[in-house]
Amino acid sequence: MQFLRRFVFPVFALFVFSLISSMAASNEASASSIYDVLKIHGLPMGLLPKGVKNFSLDNSGKFEVHLDQACNAKFENELHYDMNVTGTLSYGQIDGLSGISAQDLFLWFPVKEIRVDIPSSGLIYFDVGVVSKQFSLSSFETPRDCLAAPVPDLRDGRHVVESVPEVKYS
């Protein structure tokens, strides 16, 4: 009995852990597009515009997406995508985000984080530094067409973000 506790149980636990890890890695490795990667992480495919062909993802969840050109897509608000979008994926959220800006009241604000409620409430949240804006999750079910656009002038929005203290609501 001591043999089972000292040897077999730890080996079995290690086997189960490695099996689960390899299954998660194979799910991400089998993802043929960034849209599949978003779905695997519990996020809607429409967070990124149509036409993403080049992306990278490492084991820590850090990703980089390359677009042919900077562009804008219309949702409830307008979103701007730089040619390079980066962030860190975890289940139900992207943090450390750069390359996406949201327009509100004629100002552009850099989106720092995107998250969905788990279990889903049907809402998605965009953290733009000052506040967290909520949208209907259904608006992001499918990738949108993205029209070529110049990089928005974020100076006004950044000035607003930097001048207001950060407030987190739980």
Write the layout of secondary structure elements.
Blueprint (H helix, E strand, L loop, with lengths): L1 H29 L3 H7 L13 E4 L4 E5 L4 E4 L3 E13 L2 E12 L2 E4 L2 E4 L6 E5 L4 E5 L10 E2 L6 H9 L7
Antiparallel strand pairs: 1-2, 2-4, 3-4, 3-10, 4-5, 5-6, 5-7, 7-8, 8-9
Instruction: Write the H/E string, N to C.
Output: HHEEEEEEEEEEH
CATH topology of the largest domain: at5g01610, DUF538 DOMAIN
* β-strand number: 10
| Rg, Å, rounded | 19 Å
User: Which range does the strand content fall in?
Assistant: 25-35%
Distance between the termini: 49 Å
Query: How many separate domains make up the residues?
Result: 2
The SS-based structural class is alpha+beta
- Oligomer kind: single chain
The coarse silhouette is: globular
CATH class of the largest domain: Mainly Beta
Helix share bin: 25-40%
Named CATH architecture of the largest domain: Roll
Main beta sheet: 10 strands, antiparallel
What's the rounded overall pLDDT mean? Answer: 80
- Residue stretches low in confidence (pLDDT < 50, at least 5 long) are 8-29
Number of helices: 3
